[in-house]
From TrEMBL:
Belongs to the MAK10 family. The keyword Cytoplasm applies. It is found in: Cytoplasm. GO terms for cellular component: NatC complex. Residues 378-780 form the NAA35-like TPR repeats domain. Residues 1-21, 319-352, 605-629 are annotated as: Disordered. Residues 95-227 form the NAA35-like N-terminal domain. Keywords: Cytoplasm. The gene is CG4065-RB. Coiled coil: none annotated. This is Protein MAK10 homolog. Residues 616-629 have a biased composition (Basic residues). Its main location: cytoplasm.
Amino acid sequence: MYPSTLPAEADPSTMNGSVAEPPDFQAATAAAAAAARASSLEQDEWSVGECGFLDPDVQRTMRSGSAAEDITQYPMHGWVDVTKEFHDACAELQPGELAQDMLFGLFEAMSAIEIMDPKMDVGMGFDKQDLPPPSFEAAIATGAIKLDDLTPSELIGIYDALFSCLVSWLEGNSMDQVLFTCLYLHAPAQIKDKALRVFCTAVRNLIVVIKKIIAVAAVNEEEDFQLYGNSALLAAEKAQPATVYSSLKDVEDELIRKCKKLTSTEDWMAVVHRLRFMRHLFQVIYHVEQMASNDTVDDKVDIYKILLVASEMLPGIRNTLDRGTQPEKGSDAPNPMGFSPRIHDRSQPPAFPRSIKIRDRPSSYQFLEEMISRFKYACKVTKYKDYYSALNFFIEYSKKSGQCILSRSVLQTLFSANMRMAHGKLPMKQFLRHSVQVFNSPPVLNAKHPVAADPKVQQHLENFFRYCINMNTFTQFIRICGFNRARQRDKLARLIENFDTIQVDAARLDSMMNQLANERAMEGNEPMATALKHSTHFSTWVLYNCFRAMLIFLMSGFELELYAVHEFLYIYWYPYEFLIGFLVSALTRTENILLAQEEYAEHQSKTQSGGSGAAKNRKAAKPKKNKKTQRPYRAEIVFYHALLSLCGGMYKAMGALTKDGRVRLPLSKFDNEEIRYNRRFLPFATLTSPPPVSYAEFKNVREHMMRHSVEDLYTYAAKHFDQARNVLESIQNPDQEMLDLLQIARTNFVVMNVLARGHQKEVKRQPEFDFSKHSYFPIIKLK
């Protein structure tokens, strides 16, 4: 602790007041105490403005009657060196020991700015001789920027720099530190050059439109995008996005007419191409924003055509990047004229991330090209009219969209800007009702079936779907797929818990239907009784979606690198023993239900045809040749069989590697496997179907497996990989994911056979698990 007695040269009588010091003065306040003693001896040396710890209201009161300080001058501080006192205080702390003061605890320490760190301390970028960054008015007065008669090279340079700033903003940087470093964006109305004024106005309006799309979609997190910035900069001029398209078109036409009078038009046409690209990009994004705000859906084929035109212009724009002014070497400004990178440094919060690197121009246009491709792919969501196909599309899109928050938000808007509506016009309750009908076709949802007219049946169905909407479980599942991959896992954990109540309600509905079937059978209404005995349509549909959420949650841990190698054993064991089998069972049951309904419909048709005696009906009842049987989920079932074999192979391989001593295990005194197991499967603990699997059950299964020899376990793992290889090779027209899984299965099959023969038996090195080919299944590499 800091000594309780004062040094001889520091007389307590010179201090303000006579407060006795406590016997144990905390080490963390020693430096502050030394600074306070020094300041008391030189009270007249510092000004009020340098007392940064004073409340602003107090400072204003103390300044009353005196002239305000000149804020344009570089601040002068009367620093006091407390290095020696600070090191003396720190020397009294043991390694790992922290000092805490009543006003400075762990929270303040984590929020503090690291002095002398360029990434945190904004003052590190300035010298005392530096002039303050120029404002828009100051830049005009000094001639640093031009407002009229800009050359094509200058226009191209500013346009390209603004596109780079826009991309940097979409990547999660602050709007103030990237976009509004462009001085032209502060007051576009004062720009006399029409081409530059209209472009800067379009960028300002684009900022407003993009912020609204992302806010309405609500799939962003703080690490994805910063919605809020200096709103005063945007409020300086009222946004009028409806007029931007026509303004860009007018300027574009004027420049084209100008080019017809010139002999050399390459530079001006490069300007035109950038204006045209901005016009098409703005038109698409503004149309999406209108869909989000007005709940109206126009023909989205127009959006796709506009995106095609925009994508066709990007190669030509990239070929003319060298025609514009280029950034100066060693400068942070994306363009020599019109940008002031540090203009907002002193207006940011104290703990704001300071180090901002604006993208270079080639990679920015590459980002825009990929973003437009994602927009075009997102337009395909309008083709999927049921929940099963829409969810598949969202899961696939999530894997391809990367970290682009705007692409994910556009997809959410195209599908459902309002959580109560699907595709902008279909109520979500009707959408879910249609989805169940498409998934396994319950007769009670068929409007032409006699059972659909039963008011009691319709009341039960209405209650079930209203409950699904109120719980928001199914709509939230689709919305979760719009978040970034790391946040999806956290939100899926909470979503899985909500499935349990819907499962109970679906099982209750199925039970009521079966009860009604028995009542109708007793009344002699056999057709209606047969229709109501529908083999748990609703429970199967709910369970299938629950199993999918569980599988995505569990396997995403590999993609996010959350699991240690020694945990792979029970992570792969759970889908191998339970999850994938449940999914295959649900889909197989659904196919069997569809087949049974098809056979029943054919039987009814034959019965009606035979009873009529008409030749026309007999001809219609004749069975068709080569009639295709309803097996809509056969491809997915086959794929899940391949995943089942891969999980089984990894489970047996990890068991063999662990028993062989090739997997590093944590020290027993620092480890509790049961706690880790329960934590990994915690979201599943509240479910009644499937029932949670305790650690004791897993331990019994593992002990039973470990009774086999290491060579046998390697052989069993090889057989699983071989089964996966055979299944994947049987799939016609495989996609890239299936081809990658096929390569993984082949490679691991060879590795397991090599280890089963005793290769490197004396060398107990942990193999490398390479996840570069697939996020969930690694290639096992021997070192």
